[in-house]
Amino acid sequence: MSSTPSDPEPEIPRLPMPSKNPLPLSSSQEAQVRELYHSRVRGYCAAEIKLFADCALGRTFTAPFACRAQNRVMNACMIQHATQSEQDAAREEWFATRLRRQKEREKREERRKEQEKFR
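C-alpha cells predicted for COX assembly mitochondrial protein:
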C-alpha cells in the first residue's frame, strides 16, 4: 500500500528526554547527537557561512587573506551558538525523535524483506 503525496503523514509522538541526567549513549548515537548539534549551529549561521563561501569561491591561497572579515563574522556566529545549552537541546531532540527513527528503520526492513521475496 503506497501513500500519495496528498495523504498526510501520521504524526509520531515525541518522547521527552528520559531524565536531566542523560543516559549514556553508544558512540554511534553520540555521533548522531553531535551531527544534529552541528547542523543546528550551521542552520543559525547559514547566512554568514554563505557570505564566506561566496567570498572564498574560486580562491585558493588568497582566501584566508581576502575573506578574513567574512571568516571572522562566520566564526563569531558559530562560537555564539555553539553552547552547552545548544548541545543539550540537540540531545533532547535526538531523544524526542527516536520513535520516528525506529518507525523508519522498521519500514526499511519491511521493504528489504519484500524485495528479497522477488529474488
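The mean pLDDT is 83.
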